[in-house]
Amino acid sequence: QKEVEQNSGPLSVPEGAIASLNCTYSDRGSQSFFWYRQYSGKSPELIMSIYSNGDKEDGRFTAQLNKASQYVSLLIRDSQPSDSATYLCAVNSKSNTGKLIFGQGTTLQVKP
Amino acid sequence: EPEVTQTPSHQVTQMGQEVILRCVPISNHLYFYWYRQILGQKVEFLVSFYNNEISEKSEIFDDQFSVERPDGSNFTLKIRSTKLEDSAMYFCASRLDTYNEQFFGPGTRLTVL
């Protein structure tokens, strides 16, 4: 079983729609969860962090965490063409060094 | 806003040559990391560094790799004898502690010919 799993997509949504991105992780001891956005040829850019069960909202983005189901999601409301990118789910490893374990990423395409 | 910087942005080298990739982490951060991303693949952890020593390294980080914090600001990754398969984007990252947000630099694209 992969440590962090994401559907690679592409996920295609029309402009203005809600995009829903999902991620599952294998280590029940994980405490910190992050969503990064990565444009082609660029570095990961932090969008959201979430540490406790429930929802966390920041502008058009909402992160959701369910530790019992080992599931993290990212909702993007009012999707814009500029949101087209690969979204990376990252989880703190169980080691105490703070290294991140990344999923493969989901490619989002927002069509005008 | 503070950011992680990396130089060079692109490095081309011949197989067997040594390369040094440089990073300046965010100034008050204490934990430093190198990751790499081969084209089309996921971001992979290489090494973590804290209190002037390696705290964890991956299987990828073999004897050809080394890291150093030569002064209070720079953090370097050295590859002693590059191989074709070392061609990748190398990202430096830093964070204040081991649980909060980790910020990435713009990356160095390493091409080994």
What would you note in describing this structure?
The complex is a heterodimer of chains A (about 110) and B (about 110). Chain A has strands at about 5, 10-15, 20-25, 35-40, 45-50, 55-60, 60-65, 70-75, 85-90, 100, 105-110. With about 110 residues, chain A is an all-beta fold. In chain A, the strands form two sheets. In chain A, strands 2, 4, 5, 9, 10 and 11 form a six-stranded mixed β-sheet that branches. In chain A, strands 1-3-8-7-6 form a five-stranded antiparallel β-sheet, with no helix packed on it. In chain A, a hairpin with a 2-residue loop joins strand 6 (about 55-60) and strand 7 (about 60-65). Chain B contains no helices and eleven strands. The model of chain B has no long low-confidence stretch (mean pLDDT about 95). In chain B, the strands form two sheets. In chain B, strands 2, 4, 5, 6, 9, 10 and 11 form a seven-stranded mixed β-sheet that branches. Chain B has a four-stranded antiparallel β-sheet with strand order 1-3-8-7, with no helix packed on it. Chain B is globular, with a radius of gyration of 13 Å. Classes of the chains: A mainly beta (about 110), B mainly beta (about 110).
Summed up:
In chain A, 0% of the residues lie in helices and 53% in strands. Chain A has strands spanning 4-5, 11-14, 19-25, 33-38, 45-50, 54-58, 61-66, 71-76, 85-92, 100-102, 106-111. In chain A, strands 2, 4, 5, 9, 10 and 11 form a six-stranded mixed beta sheet that branches. In chain A, strands 1-3-8-7-6 form a five-stranded antiparallel beta sheet, with no helix packed on it.
